[in-house]
Amino acid sequence: MSDRACEVYDWDKEPDLDELRRLMDMQATAPAQALAGLEELAGRGSTMSMVYLAHAYRNGIGADVDPLPSREWFARAAAADSLLASYELGWLYRNDKDYEKAHRALSTVIANG
């Protein structure tokens, strides 16, 4: 994650920052368990859990590589005002040649970043 994305994220919005940190550390040793924990935390409103889930599905961390849930988690996080997720989603749309959606997602980042 970029330093700039961390700077503009409101970490106070996280429902359980200690649990998020614990799950991120767990990804190295028990990735499937970390993924399940991130899903539970995302269900409680953790935007960064949604971003980390999207990355996990995109990169095959704790699950098979699967672009569909990756895109869905990025979209959920973007809807929760994550500029990092909007950026990632914009590039996914660009790679799919869906330039209208890419422009919309990346414009959000430019306007708010």
Commentary on this structure:
By secondary structure, this protein is an all-alpha fold. It has one domain (3-112): Tetratricopeptide repeat domain (Serine Threonine Protein Phosphatase 5, Tetratricopeptide repeat, Alpha Horseshoe). It contains seven helices and no strands. The longest helix is centred in the C-terminal third of the chain and has 14 residues, at 99-112. The two termini are 14 Å apart. The model has no long low-confidence stretch (mean pLDDT 90).
Q: Give the full name of the CATH homologous superfamily.
A: Tetratricopeptide repeat domain
H and E order: HHHHHHH
Number of strands: 0
Helix content: over 70%
What is the 3D shape?
Answer: globular
Q: What is the CATH class name?
A: Mainly Alpha
Radius of gyration: 14 Å
| Mean pLDDT across all amino acids | 90
Class of secondary structure makeup = mainly alpha
Q: How many DSSP helices?
A: 7
Largest β-sheet summary: none
Q: Give me the CATH architecture, please.
A: Alpha Horseshoe
Write the CATH fold name. Answer: Serine Threonine Protein Phosphatase 5, Tetratricopeptide repeat
**Into which percentage range does the β-strand content fall?**
under 5%
Total tally of structural domains? 1
Gap from first CA to last CA: 14 Å
- The unreliable regions are none
